[in-house]
């Protein structure tokens, strides 16, 4: 089972290089940059945290420590906003 799940009330639109989330419960929109959008896509694909980190390292050519920190920060923020459970 993946560490994070997307609640049913959160809709996603993947755009070129970014994503837009709509929380139907709060009627709030969230715009994700390329990095956060790729992390979100990893959650949608039900990837484990380490797999998402590996994808970021490959796609954005960053060090593991950078990818790990960014992934953890983004997931914490999305969860705090109720966009992940």
Written overview of the protein:
The chain is α+β, with helices and mostly antiparallel strands and 85 residues long. It is built from 3 helices and 3 strands. It has helices at residues 34-44, 49-60, 64-80; strands at residues 10-15, 18-23, 28-32. The chain has a 3-stranded antiparallel sheet.
Topology:
Layout: E1 10-15, E2 18-23, E3 28-32, H1 34-44, H2 49-60, H3 64-80
Antiparallel strand pairs: 1-2, 2-3
Write down how many β-strands occur, each being a DSSP E stretch of 2 or more residues: 3
Main-sheet strand order equals 1-2-3
**Secondary-structure class:** alpha+beta
Order of helices and strands: EEEHHH
Q: Number of helical segments?
A: 3
Q: Determine the mean pLDDT.
A: 95
- Cα Rg: 12 Å
Shape descriptor: globular
Please estimate the helix content. 40-55%
Distance between the termini: 13 Å
The biggest beta sheet reads: 3 strands, antiparallel
Strand percentage: 15-25%
């Amino acid at each position: 089972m993946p560490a994070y799940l997307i609640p049913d009330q959160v809709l996603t639109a993947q755009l070129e290089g970014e994503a837009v989330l709509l929380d139907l419960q709060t009627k709030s929109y969230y715009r994700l940059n390329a990095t956060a959008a790729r992390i979100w896509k990893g959650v949608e694909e039900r990837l484990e945290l380490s797999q998402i980190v590996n994808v970021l390292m490959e796609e954005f050519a960053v060090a593991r420590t950078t990818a790990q920190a960014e992934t953890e920060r983004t997931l914490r923020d999305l969860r705090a906003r109720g966009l992940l459970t």
